[in-house]
Amino acid sequence: MNNESISVIKVRNILMVTMPSDPDDSTISSLQNKVLGAMEQTDAKGVILDISTVETLDSFFARTVSETAQMVALMGGRTIVAGMRPAVAVTATQIGLTLKNIETSLTVDRALDLAAIERPQH
Amino acid sequence: MKSKTKSPSDGGEKLFAAVKTSDMLRLLVESVRDYAIILLDPKGHVLSWSPTAERLKGWTADEIIGRHFSAFYPPEDNASHKTAMELSVAEKDGRFEDQGWRVRKDGKRFWANVILTALRDETGKLIGFGKVTRDMTAQRAAEEKIRKQAQEIFEMAAVPVVQVWEGVLLVPLIGTLDSQRTQHLMERLLQRVTETTSSVALLDITGVPTIDSQTAQHLIETVAAVRLLGADVVLTGVRPTIAQTLVHLGIDLSNVITRSSLTAGLRMALDIINLKVGPKS
User: Fold this and answer.
1) Stretches in chain B below the pLDDT threshold 70
2) Is residue A122 part of a domain?
């Protein structure tokens, strides 16, 4: 298990989660546990998932992100996906990634703004 | 270098005699620089060669005479027995014309225009074929270039993406939207949104005459993709007829912000990026 490749850092009250550029299935599998575990331990109010280096997206990754966002929402947090690349967005649309419980942002910088301004919607 | 001819076994004697007696014709064949003119026997073996043919195809007369003309064709054409088809068409219709890739002796390919003409004696018996080959590689490259430029211009004109404010992009769409164009629209818009880190894109469909369910679906997908990037789309210029069509087709645009005019859309966009336009004083 190559769990080290996902970094989860708590910045103020937000978890910064950075995905590696080419995550394999085991890395993706570990995403959920890491994020949810950190949510529990740190009492963070939300998650910023930085996928700005991710170049390809498969249905497994899309489903994991979508499910994790729903779980984070159940734990009272928000999920902001930041920095999705155009090609990834096209694929995500084609495989039907839903935006339920997911907020999006062009850059991590803006995601931080977004997290600071808006109240959680739950 | 001289044009060589060889007496073939099956019915080529008359042809051989005809060329031999006509020095003028031989001179013509040897002197024409743009067309490689050669003769084939009824089965497709090379009977005569010319300096232009050597220049174009690389083989010398000694190397090629007697060989089948499939040597000039790329392997994929030979796999489908293209030469046999060409000969049978030329025999049946009197001529066969083709444009395609041909192979030189060194293996390099060139784009050729080829005309095969059936040659018959006075009794109507097939005695062989005349083959005229012209190297069209340069013309083809020029045509490709022009076509590519036209395509680029068309693509740019088809989907203009303009930045109207910091953080606001405008895409004025004019004319019918087909799948290819909406696909292109999606790619370009996503690209520009990322490049300019724009928060809002205004998709103006004032100039779009009609929308069918497929186009609407493409637009919905485009909006979804832009949202995934972290930006929003405002669909503007939804005229009454388009609104009616969309409702009648049962297309659900409730997830898309829509406005009737571009003005209202721009106001919405400024609102999204937290700006307000007011009087100067």
Assistant:
1) 1-21, 156-157
2) no
Domain range for A89 is: 3-117
Point out the domain boundary residue: B141, B174, B203.
Answer: B141
Taking CB atoms and an 8 Å limit, are B228 and A84 in contact across chains?
A: yes
**pTM, to two decimals:** 0.58
Q: For chain A, give the number of residues.
A: 122
Does residue A111 carry a pLDDT above 50?
Answer: yes
Contact assessment for residue B29 and residue B118, using Cβ atoms and an 8 Å cutoff:
no
Domain extent at residue B226: 159-272
Q: Would you say the ipTM is above 0.90?
A: no
| Runs of H (alpha helix) within B46-198 | 51-57, 61-64, 75-79, 82-93, 137-158, 179-196
Residue A62 within a domain: yes
Picking from B227, B229, B233 by the largest number of A CB atoms within 10 A of its own CB, the best residue to mutate is: B229
**Contact list, B197 vs chain A (CB under 8 Å):** 106-107, 110
